[in-house]
Design a protein that fits this description.
Number of domains: 1
Number of strands: 8
Strand content: 35-45%
Number of helices: 6
CATH class: Mainly Beta
Order of helices and strands: HEEEEHEEHHHEHE
Radius of gyration: 18 Å
Oligomer: single chain
Shape: elongated
Helix content: 25-40%
CATH superfamily: Electron Transport, Fmn-binding Protein, Chain A
Structural class: alpha+beta
Amino acid sequence: MSDQHERFWEILEHMQVCMVTTEDGGLLRSRPMAPFIDTGEKTIQFVTDSDSAKIYEMNADANIALSFVDSNKMLFASVSGRGVVSRDRALIRELWGPYCDVFFTGGAEHADVAVIRVVPAQAEYWDNDKNKIAMAAELTRAYFTEAGPDLGENAKLDL
């Protein structure tokens, strides 16, 4: 695995929320969800209501896009892949935690939930080592010079 691939998974590992985008009747629809990042398996999973619109939309078109943002660290990532739905109770138990207790009733054994598993096909990330003040200074410098801003490393990856 390349250094860029490793850095991509390191960035995702600490993301607590992402926007999950599916297609809904020819239009794109996004909603925030809590990802379960499995860096070993190179997958991203979500627990959701088993009758949610996401499930129906994925049955019609399994393509899915994920957008991650950590504005405090100025880290960004985008993932394109295909989603697969699982109702495997062992997997639900594995992913279950306090977050799930807040959103779903019945616990890991009885909640009416499913797992969306995304296997990324392509990804892109923006890795910035500047804090917000340094970023503002960089943008100001670029504004007053002919050089564009240095916004950090950007990599597009085939996964």
